[in-house]
Every structure is written in C-alpha cells, then in structure tokens.
Specification:
OB fold (Dihydrolipoamide Acetyltransferase, E2P); Rossmann fold; 5-stranded antiparallel sheet; 5-stranded parallel sheet; 33% strand; 6 helices; alpha/beta; disordered N terminus
Length: 258
C-alpha cells in the first residue's frame, strides 16, 4: 500500500477533499489510474487523497470493518480475491461508496450491477483518461445533488423541494408545473416561467429535456425506448426525435452503461 497522497491545495481553499482507493495487481495501471485521478481532481479544484493496493485482500485487511473511501477503483481480474468478490465485501461495510470496475475484458460488466457499480472501464491506455474523466464527472454530479433543494417561487410564498424528489417538470400555458414525490404521493406545484430557464437551473442535477414541454429527472426513468421514457411511477412521456439521442445517452450514463 502506498501512503496517502498530499492534497493539491490547502484544505480550506478547496470545495471538498475526497478519499480514493485504487486496487489493481498491475503496478503500471495502479500508477496510471492514480495519476489520472489526481490530475482530474486538481483540474476540478478538489482535494484528493489516493491510496493504492495490489490486491483485494490487502485492501480489506487495511480498512477492516470501517471503509472511509468515497470512491474505489477495482481491477476485476486480480489474482486471489478478484474485484467482484472484493466489491461484495466493500458493499457489506460501506453502502455509500462509489465503486468503479476497471478491466481488460468486457465480459464481467454485468457483474458490476450486482454491487451497484458506477461504471465499468476498459484498460485501454489511450482511452482510459477520457473514460475516467467522464466517470468522475458522473460521480461528482451525483454527489452534488444529494441533499440539494430547488426553490419554487410562488406569488404567495416559496417552497423548497429536494431535487431527487422531483419526477418531471412540464410547461403548460406560460406556467411550469413541478411533479414532486412527497410521503408516497405525487404533488403538483406551479409557477410562472419558461422551461428553458428551469432546464438551465436543473440540468446540472440530471434533468434531461425530452420534449419541448417536458424536463425529466433521469434518476426516475426506468426505461427508454423509441420514442418514450417510462418513469418509475408508471407514467410514460413521449420523447421528441430532436432529443432522443441525448436522452438515450443520459439514461445509459445513469445506468452505468457508458
């Protein structure tokens, strides 16, 4: 195991400090992944502490029953305890950690869903940096939205709703309707405004334009097919041809398929 890396900035000057683990039995890729992670974090203005491990056994022995990492990168096909088995142990002691699989083979990709992995990255030296950057972009976006709220400004007051509770937003006759899950029920909140402005505000939280009149929280989409999005509450919303490719890509990213 390598010691903690030094943070790039004074902790008081960064937005957050992330603890990351890289577990890979190939030294070359341990070093490469560590360097790419540190480069990304520096460019984004985050503090970062990265530990490296040559095996799943060594990593689990070091963390014991209290895993403090925010993100763990695991090689799938390590000798001894492989990445899938290691991820299973990690999930039992740390539900919130983001797990990313890295492997030379795509054949194990479906196993990643059993442990709710964020991504499955291929060990391709030329393409790994871009894939890792996109992966970390997704992780940071998810973390930024946790606990975030949106303020709906009515004529007679304001309402703060959790971002994750908003299913979709609809534009109707110069009004914008927010459909929000509260206590197991779907509540409707209305304000005057334009959907383009709402999209600009909520786009960073995973809201995707599917139609001229609809924004959908991609987190609540269960299925996308030509040209329709099925929400987890059973509702189906038409997807315009203009937006279909973007919606499909955002949905696949949400599912960890890109």
């Amino acid at each position: 195991m390598t010691g903690f890396g030094m943070p790039f900035y004074n902790i008081l000057e960064v937005r957050n400090v992330f603890r990351v683990a890289v577990c890979d039995d190939e030294e070359y890729f341990r070093i490469l992944e560590k360097n790419l992670i540190e480069k990304y974090m520096e460019e984004q203005g985050y503090g970062c502490l990265v530990d490296s491990y040559p095996s799943g056994e060594e990593m689990l022995s070091a963390v014991g029953e209290s895993l403090q990492y925010d993100i763990v990168f695991l090689d799938v096909s390590m000798g001894g305890m492989d990445g899938i088995e290691t991820a299973g142990h990690i999930r039992r002691i740390a539900e919130a950690v983001d797990i990313v699989f890295v492997s030379a083979y795509i054949t194990y990709a479906l196993d990643g869903y059993k442990v709710n992995a964020v991504r499955y990255l291929l060990k391709e030296e030329d393409g790994l940096e871009n894939a890792l950057k996109e992966c970390l972009d997704t992780i940071m976006a998810r973390r930024n939205r946790r606990g975030a709220e949106y303020e709906i400004d009515f004529r007679n007051g304001k309402k703060h709703v959790p971002i994750d509770a908003v299913l979709y937003v609809e534009s109707r006759l110069h009004k914008v309707l927010f459909f929000v899950t509260e206590a197991g029920e779907i509540k409707e909140y209305c304000k005057y405004g334009k959907l383009d402005l709402i999209q600009a505000e909520l786009g960073q939280y995973g809201f995707c334009r599917v139609h001229q009149s609809y924004l959908v929280n991609i987190k609540h989409v269960n299925h996308v097919e030509r040209y329709e999005a099925s929400l987890e509450n059973g509702m189906k919303i038409n997807i315009s041809k203009r937006y279909y490719k973007d919606v499909e890509r955002e949905y696949m990213k949400q599912q960890g398929e890109l």
